[in-house]
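Per reviewer request, we include the raw input and output of the structure prediction for the construct analysed in the revised manuscript.
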Amino acid sequence: MRAVLQRVTHARVTVGGEVVGAIDRPGLVVLVGVRRTDGPEEVATMARKIATLRIMRGETSVLDEGAPVLVVSQFTLYADTRKGRRPSWSGAAPAEVADPVVEQVADALRSQGLDVAQGRFGADMAVELVNDGPVTVILDI
């Protein structure tokens, strides 16, 4: 599993002009990419890292701050661009595998007491955010 964490002042996801997920105060936007082999162990590790990574202001975590998290599925994080000009997506899990895993990551964050908003899996989403810092971190589990 791979995730890109961006510390933000606020963010939202719209689908077809409708806001489907938003955070209106400082927190994290988390873009999550899933491999075919990702399962419960990777979900638990990723959720723990997202919640406790000290990348908020003052070297605190979203868990320390009670800050919100916006989770967005992002299969393109597994693009293989080593050959040619067209990315290969073979490293990314198919939708029927990835969708439940992304949902499990969001649920695992909620179970830690975090306020979690989400994008809509498989939709053509517009993600708007204001990166704070900027702080952007890549997690590979």
